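Reminder to self: tokens first, then the designed residues, so the page reads top to bottom the way the pipeline ran.
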């Protein structure tokens, strides 16, 4: 009886392994097809100069971070004095 259970569990493990291996070609084909989209994103995602992003239209609030608002977008700037410090943040949700 013990040998029968062992064979059954081994057979189940082999079936599971072969089933999972069946998904690998599908996953690798999906990864290969996404290469063209990545190149387009890299072209769009080039880093712009600071003066091109934070323009005269920006409303800036100074603090631990500088917060720049341009239209409906927010940009956070980490000031150099904060970079080498450990920070502890506490957040609270006022309402949902």
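Designed residues (96 positions):
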């Amino acid at each position: 009886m013990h040998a029968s259970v062992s064979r059954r569990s081994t057979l189940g493990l082999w079936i599971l392994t072969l089933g999972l291996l069946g998904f690998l070609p599908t996953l690798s084909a999906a990864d290969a097809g996404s290469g063209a989209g990545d190149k387009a994103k890299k072209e769009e995602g080039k880093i712009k100069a600071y003066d091109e992003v934070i323009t005269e239209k920006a409303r800036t609030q100074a603090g631990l971070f500088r917060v720049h608002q341009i239209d409906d977008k927010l940009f956070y700037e980490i000031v150099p004095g904060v970079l080498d410090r450990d920070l502890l943040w506490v957040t609270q949700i006022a309402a949902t």
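Residues 2-21 form the longest helix (20 residues).
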